[in-house]
Write a structure and sequence with these properties.
homodimer; diaminopimelate biosynthesis (chains A, B); globular; six-stranded antiparallel β-sheet; VC0802-like; 11 helices; Carbamate kinase; eight-stranded mixed β-sheet
């Protein structure tokens, strides 16, 4: 039996009882003869509590000090989980990010892992120990850093690669990756397997199970990922290369998100660097732009539409107003209460008719399409928010995902 | 203006409000032009909370994992205090024990500081920053260690020595060192100054303000210590060399502790290694013995009495019974509900009559003395617990401490 990495998220280690439950699960995997490295997050609401303490002191605390503060959350969990294993007579040792050799950029609050010095972990494994590592954190020179959103998943995948694990198993509060969100669509079905690229599109589009960074990392190193529940023994979803995928369905899942707002800039003079200026302005205001559509309606003028999340509309309008004179556009429109619905599947690459089929289905139910964006394995349509669930249900049915 | 080390204990940083209060105090000291290194403990009940979590998992958790767990407490405080200073526009940086270069033995839970690699702290000071260091913790190779009881005081003194500070200022919830415990004796008086040796005797005897390890450390390096309140601006007590002490009173303070039990082993055969065996047995059972009195009543036999704390009586009796046959003693007696009262003062060294004076005073109030122990600057008498406060009050008065 080879090496495995398990990762348990905040909910899975949210209480002493749950930590003991995780210890039981680890015991079983160890009994099967695996060498185990376990990555854990901070306990349930621990991070929120720390963020709240900082918030009582400073509206904008130093990022370095936030890393210093937040990294204690995972450190508490690794110590407690290790104690729980030792209490069962299992030899285990906890390691902080820096002890585990997780080197990162010097970018507090959102550092990327640059390399893993795996000596310590490999040594502890060779001594027969289960190694419990604090997720979400690393070290840059001698500074404690954190990895930002989805950081613990990334830690797990990076460690799996560094110790040449057979698989990186992400245990969470859902039983796997679904064809669409089961909270909205009762007939959503759990997938046995999915490809990295499909998962990336699903993750980016709000499926929310895994952070895209960790999936991309796994893809780059061909590290098989398993997503499964820490609370049940139900089989999860395997994420791997194309060829390992169960059946070559055209569409593998429907992702969706609401709170989408469409903004249109009208009558923008068609100069070389206009688009660059427009989106740099928004980026400087930390406005995240998703879909962009450009339409040149005369030789000299164009319209540009883009989608943003509802909450950044105010900043967007302010930023645009600031540069209206400089850019010389005529008007701004916006449309709120929209949603984005996307079909995802690697089968689409060789099947150009899928987008058309999607539009037909939406038309059949009189759902107007406001914007469209496509990638090789995804087609996204922006629709009215009130039509979102209907659109997802109908697409889910029409593409035989039930 | 030179360098200063401040240390703030758990009560002083027990809430966000108190952390802000500490930041205000630091701001004042910085405004006076001092270079400052600040050592802090975990917030109020934070350590208790962590100990409780561990206790829910294991009755005897691994000491290494306890260090991993508990060291997070101080790490939270350094981050929050640094944020509070930065919020006031003061440049500051937090350092964990290992970042601050605090090297210790590889003895988890009770490590001694072996050396301090001061480069990082000195560099940050030279950049004009106030350096906030986590007390109570250090590093041995790449393992996180904690220093045990009084650890943060020791961290503060060791850092003061390492950066050649002018003074190490310990801020706590009392206003200084008193002639005796003001909770018991209303006329207790705060001392302006006291010598290291006197403080050591006071600390050992339960005055409780400073841990003896930190006082000894300060004495070895002639580092002046100030004990003062973090809640008021009242002048505290300076602890220094003999010559700095205000007035050469014979007795400088009265220390006392209750819960003392006296155990007597009767008819112990007078062999060479009998005493060694007897006390090794107790030490192996983790019984702490304080006063020891040996009385050889014939050439072949002796009686040995010693004092222990009430809570270890059961273990003591069990241990003695185990070795009764081997050691060949005749009987065991014990006497509970006793207390130890001690007079402390370096003036005693050259004044042999002080002990006699103490016994006279006790006799005057019909307080029976059960055991006596003396050092160069201390005389301790064991008396009935019910007489403890009376004895302290009368000695306090007779030796002109009011």
């Amino acid at each position: 039996m080879g090496r495995l990495v398990h990762k348990y998220g905040g909910t899975s280690v949210g209480s002493v009882e749950r930590i003991k439950n995780v210890a039981n699960r680890i015991e079983k995997a160890a009994a099967e003869g695996h060498e185990l490295v376990i990555v854990v997050s901070a306990m349930g609401k621990a991070t929120d509590h720390l963020v709240d303490l900082a918030g009582q002191i400073s509206a904008e605390p130093s990022k370095r000090e936030m890393d210093m503060l937040l990294s204690t959350g995972e450190q508490v969990t690794i110590a407690l989980l290790t104690m729980a294993l030792m209490e069962k007579g299992i030899d285990a040792i906890s390691l902080t990010g820096w002890q585990a050799g997780i080197q990162t950029e010097a970018h507090h609050g959102n550092a990327k892992i640059t390399s893993i010095v795996n000596e310590r972990i490999v040594e502890e494994l060779s001594l027969g120990k289960i190694v419990i590592v604090a997720g979400f954190q690393g070290i840059s020179e001698s500074e404690i850093t954190t990895l930002g959103r989805g950081g613990s998943d990334t830690t797990a995948v990076a460690l799996a690669v560094a110790i040449e694990a057979e698989c990186c198993e992400i245990y969470t509060d859902v039983t796997g990756v679904f064809t669409t969100d089961p909270r909205y669509v009762a007939k959503a079905r759990k997938l046995d397997s999915i490809s990295y690229d499909e998962m990336l599109e699903m993750a980016n589009l709000g499926a929310g199970v895994l952070h895209p960074r960790s999936v991309e990392f796994a893809k780059n190193y061909s590290m098989p990922l398993l997503v499964a529940s820490s609370m049940s023994d139900e089989a999860g979803t395997m994420i791997g290369e194309e060829e390992t995928v169960e059946e070559n369905l055209l569409v593998r899942g429907i992702a969706f998100e609401n709170d989408v707002t469409k903004v249109t800039v009208e009558g923008l003079p068609n100069k070389l660097n206009t688009l660059a200026k427009l989106f740099t302005t928004l980026s400087n205001k930390k406005v995240n732009v998703d879909i962009i559509i450009q339409h040149q309606y005369t030789e000299d003028f164009m319209n540009v539409s883009f989608s943003i999340t509802q909450s950044t509309l105010k900043d967007t309008l302010a930023a645009l107003t600031e540069v209206q004179q400089e850019l010389g556009f005529k008007d701004i429109h916006f449309e709120e209460e929209l949603a984005k619905v996307s079909i995802v599947g690697s089968g689409m690459v060789s099947n150009p008719g899928v987008a058309a089929q999607m539009f037909e289905i939406l038309a059949e139910y009189e759902i107007a399409v406001k914007m469209v964006s496509t990638s090789e394995i995804k087609v996204s349509a922006v629709v009215d928010e009130r039509n979102m669930v209907l659109a997802v249900e109908m697409l889910h049915k029409a593409f035989q995902l039930e």
